[in-house]
Fold this sequence. Notes:
By secondary structure, the protein is an all-alpha fold.
Amino acid sequence: MACWAGALWTLPLSWVIFIPYYVLISRWEESLLEARAGDAYRAYQQRVGAWLPRLRLSKDVFAPATHSWRETFFSERGTLVAVAVMGILLSLKIVWAHS
């Protein structure tokens, strides 16, 4: 969004805000998954890297997903709406600047 808005000076500030925010969200999501799936999730955590992918993965890591896309979109609706609104506002700003 910073690049799209032409405000490159905000990139360092964006990362300073984004990194701690994302770490906190990841910890919350991991605790939620552990509460829901228990030992199965802990075993999964041992096979898959949290931040960087492992070079050798077991075949069961790629087993078919058993999650609900509807639930996923519902839980991310705030993020999707925010991105859409920012995209529309930035597009309008660009159109108005060139008219």
